Amino acid sequence: MTMTRSSIRLALVLSLAAATPAAAQQWLAAPGAKTNQSSFRAIDEWADPTEVRNAGGSPGPKYWQQQVDYVIRTTLDTVANKLTGSERVTYHNNSPDELRYLWFQLDQNIDDPAVSRAIQASPALPPKLSPMARRFLAPEIPAGMGNRITRVQVASYSGTGKARRAGALADAEWTVNGTQMKVLLPRPLAPGSVVDVAIDWTHLVPETSRNGRGLREKVKDGWLYEMAQWFPRASVYDDVNGWQTDQFLGQGEFYLNFGNYDVSITVPRDHIVQATGVLQNPAQVLTATQRERLVRAMSSDAPVFIISKDEVLQPSTRPAGSGPLTWRFKAEKVRDFAWVSSKAYVWDAMGYRYRPGQAPIELHSLYPRDAMPLWDKVSTKAIAQTMKTYGAMAFEYPYPKAVNVHGPVFGMEYPMIAFCGARPQPDGSYTPQLEYALVGVTIHEVGHNWFPMIVASDERKWTWMDEGLNSFVEYYAQLEWDPNWPQPGLRGPAKNIVNYMKGEQQVPIMTESNDIQVQFGANGYAKPATGLVMLREQILGPKLFDQAFREYSQKWAFKHPQPADFFRTIEDGAGEQLNYFWRGWFYTNYANDQAVTGLEMQPADSLIGSTNRGKHYARVTVENKGGLVLPVQLELTFEDGTTQKVKLPADVWRRNELKYQYGLFTDKLVTKVVVDPDEVFADIDRSNNTFPVGATPPAAPAS
Ligand SMILES: [Zn+2]
Q: Looking at the DSSP assignment, which residues form a beta bridge with residue 130?
């Protein structure tokens, strides 16, 4: 998802937690400490390595995860705005454990006051609400919203391998607990066994929702339907949580199983549908002209219109006949399935290849005419940029298609399909900022295919593992799109996050998603992304960092990593013990405030009996006043006006985390010292960075 500035403000409105008292400092290995308080010590929060997750942060020899396949038939009733569906879920128990029940996620229940924990636990409204806050905090949600489960049945299997056969379906006992549903199995599901669950359901498609990720909206040419979290999805059973049954409260996103999907979607004949997965029946749902244009688009390196602006709503764009049409999509190895439907879509497409001769990856953009002339200019090209940068930094895109769709959802991701909201003014005008916003949000949402759609972390617990890593790669993709990309946001350059790091409204990044009640965007997106830029560019260097980051991405592709798996992989690949960095940046709110507090010069021969190594010896005192342990970078100015930069590793703080003295032999007197001269370490108080105090600091580097 994308946090807009408004939603970051909203996170402030939601603020409940008090600031962390600075008095609770336990991080410093200060002289006289009676226990090991070193920032460099091992991190207790990391679970011991196992044969499932090893000490190098890799899936171990006994790594396992469940597989869940779905066959779904669904019909959209555009008069009642109601979705009706029936699904057959094939659950493969790859765990070493016997399962007596399965849990499913019913996300639509977030809008059902009878069961929604998000509604029941919401605090009183503040005295003032911005229109945006009103939309999220006090949405007018009509009665009747939520999942209506009409039948649940289970079929056990007999036999094994190719002889395995599903038995007859029989009604099962099931219970709804908020956004979770428990289905009892008639007999325990042994390790290695399979069971089918058939669920019939219906729900009203929301126009406003506490979820906000799957919505409908009326534009000039008709309704846009963006369908997300629209069917009961199996919860994850894993080696860390057992069943992950944390309620869906709106903030902590989704943790899902990989599987294969076969989905048939019935909509009015005049609608165009796009979805996760490959369309199975183009001859039935597209015209011959459209199919011919699609073929042409795949060998084009510029977007080709499949449905142009002038063709929207024309009967010639739809196959002749009457009655609804069923669109069938199949997807392999995906962890979710989303789709869109509307008669209002303009559609453009092109192919993307990592190398000549490769089968093209289909890139598609769908948007109403209201989104032109912006979307036709940049959307599909921004998808291509995402393929390129993420392909280089993580791994090449493994799915056959990637789609970007415009509608009411500002920014949300699903496998192979993203929803983005940036829209020109009604007269078609837009600012350069809006164009950057659309490119940025497209890169971000399409980038989520890598994190967490493929590197499938537990989003409900750890927002940073997908939003932070994704925002990190997004930063580089944006710079590749435009080297002069304006960087007013928090994500990327260290100096942009200083104000956040100064503030009291913080909780550590390693706080579970639903418990981050302050500055959610800065916490889950910006701070981890900025920390990784710092780690890459200042601490490890791009070469070692990039190798380790790719290693993490590739070995956890189509698997479920935990935070320590990421930390351990980076350490393993970069050959650095980074406890101090993970501890400070991820597990605390401490900020970086390095100060130069002293500069002494003495004749070198008074120290070592000669001037062979320089006439003088300079001693520079650097103090750590913020609590965060980071490397030290100094700029020394000499009496003749020349300067020299010194880059010191974080190890300088191993002896004493409060104070470090740097020494150097020199022929010239040092007249001035500046710490963090290039503003790469998010130092929150630069008034103490220059010594002697009052000397002119170096000009701020260009951003
Ligand atoms: Zn996101």
A: none
Grouping H, G, I as helix, E, B as strand and the rest as coil, residue 169 is: coil
Residue 595 has pLDDT above 70, yes or no: yes
Alpha carbon of 444 to ligand 1 centroid (Å): 6
- Partner residues linked to 599 by β-bridges: 620
- Give the architecture-level CATH label for domain 287-315+336-454: 2-Layer Sandwich (3.30)
Q: How far is the CA of 15 from the centre of ligand 1 (A)?
A: 21
Distance 465 CA to ligand 1 centre (A): 10
255 phi and psi angles, rounded to 5 deg: -125, 120
CA of 449 to the centre of ligand 1 (A): 10
- How far does the centroid of ligand 1 lie from the alpha carbon of residue 619, in Å? 47
The boundaries of every CATH 3.30.2010.30 domain in the chain are 287-315+336-454
CA of 112 to the centre of ligand 1 (A): 26
Q: How far is the CA of 680 from the centre of ligand 1 (A)?
A: 25
* Residue 116 CA, ligand 1 centroid: distance in Å: 24
How remote is the CA of residue 166 from the centroid of ligand 1, in Å?
A: 39
Distance CA 152, CA 101 (A): 13
> Exposed, middle or buried by CB within 10 Å (0-12, 13-18, 19+), for 622?
buried
Query: Which band of pLDDT confidence, cut at 50, 70 and 90, is reported for residue 518?
Result: confident
pLDDT of residue 662: 98
Please give the full DSSP string across 116-153, using - where no structure is assigned.
-HHHHTPPPPPS---HHHHHHHS----TT-S-EEEEEE
- Residue 158: its pLDDT value, please? 86
Task: Give tens-digit pLDDT for 175-210.
Answer: 999 999 999 999 999 999 999 999 999 999 999 888
- What's the 445 CA to ligand 1 centre distance in angstroms? 6
Ligand 1 centroid distance, CA of 282 (Å): 31
**Where in the chain are all domains bearing CATH 2.60.40?**
66-121+130-216+223-245, 594-691
pTM over the 0.85 mark: yes
How far, in Å, from the CA of 567 to the mean position of ligand 1? 21
For residue 188, report the distance from its CA to the centre of ligand 1, in Å. Answer: 38
Closest CA to 376 of 339, 340, 424: 424
Give the sign of the dihedral formed by CA 272, CA 276, CA 281, CA 282: positive
Q: CATH class for domain 594-691?
A: mainly beta
Q: How far is the CA of 381 from the centre of ligand 1 (A)?
A: 19
508 Cβ contact partners less than 8 Å away, ≥ 6 residues apart:
586, 587, 588, 589
CATH code of the domain made up of 66-121+130-216+223-245: 2.60.40
Q: Which residues contact 243 (CB under 8 A, 6 or more apart)?
A: 103, 235, 236, 237
The string of pLDDT tens digits covering residues 309-340 is 999 999 999 999 999 999 999 999 999 999 99
40 Cα–ligand 1 center, Å? 31
**Cα-to-centroid distance, 469 and ligand 1 (Å):** 10
Å from CA of 254 to ligand 1 middle: 12
HSE toward the beta carbon, residue 43, CA cutoff 13 A: 24
